[in-house]
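Here is one chain, start to finish.
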Amino acid sequence: MSDDRRNPYVLLGLPYGASLAEARRAFQRRAREARWGDHDAVDLADLEWALARIELEHVDAAAAFGTYRVPADPAVLRPPAGFGLLAPAPRPAPRRSPVTPDDERAVVFDAARVDAAQHLLDRTAAAVGKRLERVADGPRPVVAVPTPPVRRRGWLPVVLVGAATGAVLAVAGISTLGGDDDTTATTTVATTAAATTDPPTTTAAPTTTEADPSAAPGLGEMIEYGGIEITPSEPLDGFGHLCLLFTIDGDVPLGFLREQVTLISGGVAIDPALGITTGRAPATDVFGDPAPALREICFRTEGWQERDTDLVYNTQVGNYRWRISEA
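Its structure:
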């Protein structure tokens, strides 16, 4: 760029008529940028010429201002105003709702002013620790919105649902009480009459006898199944629960599931409370533990000693029962 009609203000990025101090600061800034690379084909020599030209114009007021190729008017450096060359001016869409009257808008504006003033008073009162008077005691305007109709509902569906729930609970209670009686072990004995002079086709009918629950083992007595010996002992009453210790022993790999133990007291089956323990023994299942293993199981019950109370251990090969209390 060897043409002397270049615009020094454009080279330094200044508006026309900038002061000499602004020109020197712009020269320092643009000189640092020019040292790091090519910026719009402007080198350090061009910047030095631009600074010298501006200094000359400030010294000599008769310098040739009109010989610049690029106009020096600051307006040329500003972005065009308006909506641009391609963007059309926005046109408002036609109004579809009725125009709000001035009196209604005035009511809303007054309410907004009162609310803003009251908010400032509340903040000031909280800051100074005093109670200030309210701006206005009149009620605020309320927009009238039509209330949707309320659908009336009768009590018949509620009564039907309650009756159905009561029937289901009654059937469940009866089935629970009936299921306890089915846990009693029965023994079937088939006998055959001895051979006599009568024809050999004559046989006696099979007879069924029920085992006596009182003959079941009690606390401290062992029951064996599959080579595993289980002994309940040391009952402990506390906080509405009965807690028992179970000793599992044997020469085979041990296995004992606490959830398979049921307490039957007064004809009511009670499942074990697996989350309750007194800390006398671990409250976990036995699976391959070394013999003997000690576990604790608690049941939610009270007054079990005043009723017939049994412990039943349900396994795949049968049910095993202990009689721990007899009324």
